[in-house]
Queue: 2 jobs
Job 1
Amino acid sequence: MTLLKQDNVCPLSVEVDIAPAFGFGLITDKKGQRPGVPYLLLAAENQTGFVVGQHLAYYEEMYHHLSDIMERILLESPMHLPHQFLIKQEITRRNLQPLARSLNIKIKKTSRLTAIAEARRALSRFTSRTVS
């Protein structure tokens, strides 16, 4: 059940993408757990490039809880709800679908996420390796 309200929707598009974040090194959630490569979710408004939110987690957590993670990002964001999510990967669409359906937000697949690409370039300046 979502805490967000449909009446706050405005004509913005938010790009959403998930990729390995090699520049952050390995992470562990629990003591004794084997370290793993973190995945970085970035969400950015596609016209201004404003980064709406980010989340760093293991691959499994990221995809199994993507709707919940994205809902939390939108709740914490100062902007209104977008009218659509722009994505590149079909797995992202499948895992965002519950949230998008409950809020009547469209999901559009595209070949380029320019705001996300720019955010990654800027982020790579602050990490030892490029954030993929």
Job 2
Amino acid sequence: MKKGFSAVLLTFLAHVCLRAENAPYFLSCDAKAGDGISILLNRYDLDAYDCNIDKFLDLNNLKKTDPLLEGKKYQLPVLIYHYNGKSIRSTLSIKDMETAKRIANYNDLILTRNLRKSDYESSGILWVPFHELNCPSPASKPINIEPKIEKVSATIHNNMTAIFGPEYEHLDKLSDDLKGKVFYISSGHGGPDPGAITKIGGHMICEDEYAYDVALRLARNLMENGAIVHIVIQDETDGIRNDDILTCDNDEKTMGTLEMPLNQLARLKQRTDAINNLYNQYRKSGIKDQTLICIHVDSRSEKERQDVFFYHFENSTSGKKLATTMQQVFAEKYARYRPGAHFEGSVSCRNLYECRIPQPTTLYIELANIRNENDRKRILPSTNRQALANWLCEGLMK
């Protein structure tokens, strides 16, 4: 009887130990210089959910106003599971496929940001954001936009090119130099947010309109050289325009179909989710060469003149390389077309949402200071906007 009881007890204890070994635990990380709660959670793509913030405060016995100490270890609202080698659903004992897809995409994102050393399948370690399984409201379903991969012919004209307007919707095939490469062209702001604004002779000048016009011209150039191009922010009524004064409006949509939210973070997340969803679809189809170009116009003091600035995410080697190449192209163009004018556009890393969160190699561009009279000459004439697009395209083709 005692032997039988002992055997049962040993079996029970072994089961308990196995369960304990496989029990999830919370991820820990060291805070960096300058980190606050929102910055740290944003780095791990956790800041968009209130329950993640509440859990972080609870795990670390903090208040929302408390600072983070550089070098101190903090627990994050990310649960670490032992991956069973079969599927995410069986690992977590869940049935919902969309939840499993989001968790898989999250692990890919974290790997892309160099926040973990290996993927969950090879390492056997699965990261699960707290909000996926514990928030009272389910996480939003990922934006599902099927990639439209168009076959390039001698003359290009299809539903995608109509966005350029009747004068520009017919494209000439110039080369296949960019064949098999994917570009996401995202002009800043749009919809309810015009971005930086100024007035000239009673006319309102809006950042989003000029960034969008350059974005369309760049997208068209890339397509003519065989690239797969996704125009992230679209206005079906504008097209490429040759006026100096571009009328401000608010009818832009994300990927041409999604109404843009009023909240700034929600707008950024909407476009980034769309980009990352497409990025993952292309990766699964074997396409790895993917690049995001974010085009903006700055707003500084009226007296402050600036050249074109190029930003990249601090942890992105490919982003830094692209920014440096682009700066060199612009310096060469200045030397050729503006002899005596030294190009002072700089390359630097920025902790911007559009640099940190997207998964493709990302280049963030500030074309000019919209409030400076001389700077505006770079974006008001349509010929200059086309020149900017041409130079950007040349940099992307190197």
